[in-house]
Amino acid sequence: MCGRFSLATEQPILQDQFDFIFNEELDYRYNIAPSQNILVIGSNGQERVGTKMQWGLVPPWSKDTKIGYKMINARAETLDEKVSFKQPFKKKRCLILSDGFYEWKKQGKEKQPYRFIMKDRRPFAFAGLWECWDKGDKPLYTCTIITTTPNELTKDVHDRMPVILPPSEYDLWLDRDAQDTDKLKTLLVPFNDQLMDVYSVSSIVNSPKNESAKCLEPTNSL
User: Fold this and answer.
1) 44 FRET partner, CA 20 to 30 A, in 95, 100, 152, 210?
2) Which family does this protein fall into (predicted)?
3) Cα separation of 210 and 193, whole Å?
C-alpha cells in the first residue's frame, strides 16, 4: 500500500515540470497522511488543472464519508472489477504529485520507515482516481492512489508500491475520452527501479502529527 508521502518541492518547479494551472499557494508537505487534502492534477480537455482533494476515495453511492479511510489505495489488478473504482477508472483519472513516499519494514519488534525517491531528486506522479460525493452540505472531492506489485528496489520493504507514471503517459492517463481499460491497465506496472533510490528515515514519520523537514532526513542507508 501507499499510506504516507511528501510533496516539499517548490511550487514553480512543480508547475513547470507538470505543466498545470493552479491558482492557490501550496505549503511544503513532509508527511502527508490519509484524509488530508492533497494536490491532484486533472484535465479539462484542453489544459491540465490542479486542485486539492481529500485523500481517501468516497464513492457517490456511499451513505457517509467514513468509507474513505479504507479507500486510500486501489489495486491495479482489480480496478475494472470493483464497483468503487470501475467508473472512475474509465472517466475520472488523475495525477497525484509527490517527491517521495514512505514504507515500513518490520525489523524485530520495530518497524523501520524508509523513503523512496527518484535518483534525480525530482518530483513524480502517482496514478490516481477521483470522485465527487454530493450528499453533504457541499460537494466533497476525494481521490485514491493506485498500487501495483513491487519492483526490485521496493520489494525488500513492502509487497506493494504506488503506480508511478512516466511523463510520456500523463496525457493518455488524463484523457477523458480514453476508456479502453485494457490499454490503460498496461500503464499500471512497477516503475523502473534503476531510476529510484531509497534511504531510511526517523521514526518521527510514524505519527502524521509530525510535519517538518526532519521527516525527510536520512538516517542509515538500506
Assistant:
1) 100
2) Belongs to the SOS response-associated peptidase family.
3) 29
pLDDT at 206 over 80: yes
DSSP H stretches of helix in the chain: 11-18, 83-91, 170-174, 181-185
- pTM metric for this prediction: 0.96
User: Of 103, 131, 211, 215, which residue is the catalytic one?
Assistant: 103
CA distance 175 to 182: 15
Q: What is the mean pLDDT of residues 144-165?
A: 97
Burial of 5 (0-12, 13-18, 19+ CB in 10 A): buried
pLDDT band at 108 (very low <50, low <70, confident <90, very high): confident
Q: Is 2 a catalytic residue?
A: yes
Q: Which of 43, 59, 23, 44 is nearest to 143 (CA)?
A: 59
Pairing of strands 29-32, 5-7: antiparallel
Q: Identify the DSSP state of 152.
A: T
**Coil, strand or helix: which one is 161?**
strand
Instruction: Give the whole-angstrom CA distance, residue 178 versus residue 184.
Output: 8
Options 2, 94, 143, 215, the catalytic residue? 2
